[in-house]
Amino acid sequence: MDSVWSVFFVASIFLFFLCAIFLYKKTSGHKTGSSQYRRSPLPLGTLGWPFLGETLDFIACAYTDQPESFMEKRRRMYGKVFKSHIFGSATIVSTDAEVSRSVLQSDATTFVPSYPKSLTELMGKSSILLINGSLQRRIHGLIGAFFKSSSLKAQITHDMHKYVQESMAVWKENHPIYIQDEAKKIAFQVLVKALISLDPGQEMEFLMKQFQEFIAGLMSVPIKIPGSRLYRSLQAKKKMVKLVHKVIQEKRDSSSIHSTLPKDVVDVLLNDTSELLTDELISDNMIDLMIPGEDSVPVLMALTVKYLSDCPAALHQLTEENMKLKKLKDRLGEPLCWSDYLSLPFTQNVITETLRMGNIINGVIRKAMKDVKIKGYFIPKGWCVFAYFRSVHLDDNQYDSPHQFNPWRWHEKDMSTCSFTPFGGGQRLCPGLDLARLEVSIFIHHFVTQFRWEAEDDSIVNFPTVRMKQRMPVWVKRRTDP
Ligand code: HEM
């Protein structure tokens, strides 16, 4: 009897592997159809295990302090561009700055964004991150122009100043201050004000609470049943959309739109004459646009404090620069305006270096809509391309001692090259990049001119999103020098 079971057992395993290999070939094989690249070889590399591909290896590396080690190992074996299979998709990984630039610069007939299922469910079909073609360009253009306007920068400067002062006024000297948490509160309020003109208060508290629930589901298991993480996040989004709908309705009723300069992003989108910008689309996008306020911008603030704490020479030079400006403005009796903050060269270099080393967005994923050949590398239709910025930012051919925080390198280095892309590039270049820099400059200015601090040990977590593990605790002392 035992031998019958053994045969049955071995036969089942054999059958399982046969099915797995069949299905894997079906999903990972590329059909080039009538493409001119039919005979082109794929980049070198391996697709790993059936179904899983190389995902486990990728995740294991992502949880370490050197997430790029997954890429580095393969880059040494196969070159800067290689094939893999991660997160359920056959993928060409690019650690080559020029290949990544070509991918970013292509339009939606060649590449479209690709995100995990939980994220697309939560964003909704009309999110700017997911739409393509003329509608994406239109919304990108409208919000990009508004974010660049000096009126908005002046408003952001005013709001940042107010919220930073309110927050820092209650910091206690004998308690740890969690920079990442403080930064989140400030950056979220500032962004929500710029999006829908909501001031701090009960509705803001409600929005913040729902937003925490919403964002927790962005990288969750894509199961949408009552009680699941994704379901709870979707419920939270519904409540937020209702609040934004109310704001839109009030604006429509007040008939002030069309007649005055836009006060916020909702005004900008409502002012547009295109029929395509429906209230649903606008409110969905307002929620998605809040993500950098809760995530990327505060993390950039916390990382800047982290790198400065670890580099006393940079902290000294940055403090001197900011003190000098403060004293000058105090003497003149003038408040600092947005251009003052952005004109501090060393402070800007510190932020640039933090963006390079921090890699808040490690890279972006696109899906090929047709067979493509870039720099001799063949990318079949239906495959994903992972443009991995982090490897380029930490490449010793591009940057001397790339793992060293060295803001002085930017004295002579050009930022506008394809080897520096913390904000992406091409048609989807981050429209909020100026705002992000401005907010961080203001936060850092007030921090260094009002406090000295000792940072507790903390480390950077890189997966699923970049953040400080302990939320960047510091012990502050108010400055007594004038
Ligand atoms: C440190 C801060 C930030 C970083 C590192 C960052 C990074 C990026 C990157 C890499 C992309 C390109 C995504 C892609 O190509 O698929 C992007 C797109 C975008 N970012 Fe940012 N961002 C930041 C702050 C902001 C802020 C403050 C806003 C303002 C709300 C913003 C709004 C957007 C939008 C709307 C897009 C999508 C553009 C499109 O697809 O047309 N970001 N960001």
Automatic annotation (TrEMBL):
Pfam families: p450. Belongs to the cytochrome P450 family. It is found in: Membrane. This is 22alpha-hydroxysteroid 23-monooxygenase. GO terms for molecular function: 22alpha-hydroxysteroid 23-monooxygenase activity; heme binding; iron ion binding; oxidoreductase activity, acting on paired donors, with incorporation or reduction of molecular oxygen, NAD(P)H as one donor, and incorporation of one atom of oxygen. Keywords: Brassinosteroid biosynthesis, Heme, Iron, Lipid biosynthesis, Lipid metabolism, Membrane, Metal-binding, Monooxygenase, Oxidoreductase, Steroid biosynthesis, Transmembrane, Transmembrane helix. GO terms for biological process: brassinosteroid biosynthetic process; brassinosteroid homeostasis; leaf development; petal development; stamen development; sterol metabolic process. InterPro entries: Cyt_P450, Cyt_P450_CS, Cyt_P450_E_grp-I, Cyt_P450_sf.
